[in-house]
Amino acid sequence: xGTGVMIGAGIFALTGQIAELAGPLFPLSxxxxxxxxxxxxxxxxKMSNKWPSSGGIAMILQKAYGPGVVAASASLLMALSMVINxxxxxxxxxxxxxxPFGLETTGWLVSxxxxxxxxxxxxxxxxxNKSVSGFSVVMSAIKIGGIVLFxxxxxxxxxxxxxxxxxxxxxxxxxxxxxxxxxxxxxxxxFTTITNSxxxxxxxxxxxxxxIMISIAVCIVVYLLVAIAVGSxxxxxxxxxxxxxxxxxxxxxxxxxLGFYFTVAIAIAATTSGVIASVxxxxxxxxxxTKMKMIPHSHFGMSGGIRSHMLVYTxxxxxxxxxxxxxxxxxxxxxxxxxVMDMLIHWGVFRNLREEVGARASILxxxxxxxxxxxxAFTSVKLKSDxxxxxxxxxxxxxVFLAEWFYLSRKSEDPxxxxxxxxxxx
Length: 426
Known about the structure:
Shape: globular
Low-confidence stretches: 416-426
Number of helices: 17
Order of helices and strands: HHHHHHHHHHHHHHHHH
């Protein structure tokens, strides 16, 4: 399931944007993303190995920083990055679904189709469908197999020396190549969901870490196949032009109409299952944060329990983002939120828990430095191309921290009330 969360929607949504930034060397961006993600996974693995039944992001942050503004704010940033990912995947679904009709550039139709998928995902989750998890497993196998089949067939048809790979490589775009790694990291960040499964694995003290590393290894193989397939079929200019549906665009010249429709079908299946699973995961995480008293809650007159309310809040925010922002801006916002949260994880483990969990300071600092370098390069590139999204991200992060400070400062000084430890223990 963890591999299925990582592979699929992200590769459909992000390949074009990565290639647009990195140029003919864009497959290397996925390799760099895998290396940075492997370093980042070290903190999560050490924490999950120590406390496998409490491997959620919020619990890791609470143990690293204690109850308070930092743990609550970073947890909320992670939840928001997951909601942002839902809107990213929903718009990807819309562009691929409309591509056969030539309507993928019609903004209001893309927004409408994306919103329709989010509403559908809400209805599936609200119905209490116990097969969501099993459905995700089956769809993971289908979409991974389909993506690999597309990639191998496209490479076979196009070879390695055509398309983007026949173009001149310029090292003047080194900063853009480095910035593209921020998007590549987004394609791998689904590994964090595996940390929530420690209580369900055999011998979780060892197998959580093994599961994460196996998933990252599988992903890099699939991502490289896809990158080579797209790069061998299309020039960088063509990839940039079709960045929101690059795999479908690459399928037509390489595999003809049948390959094109096959890729569209796989994309629709991957994005649909991805949004359904994501809404499920985000609503559970927000419910946990509410029970831990890390975020405020109001039912606004709605009936039902906290999780049913969180389903509504999740789809409202995701739907709003899907309507208001295009794919590039949604992905950029998610990258900023996730990298900041990830850096806080590494710093918290390094400063307060490395001896307790047996983590090496050098690896923690290397992960922190890698995130910082990628974030700096990404910010620099976005300040030149789209300064507004940098402002949106900075405003969003500042708002989260200020809101959490205001909320927690008004809570009772009773630690159990502030952290919801009683609910967490239950």
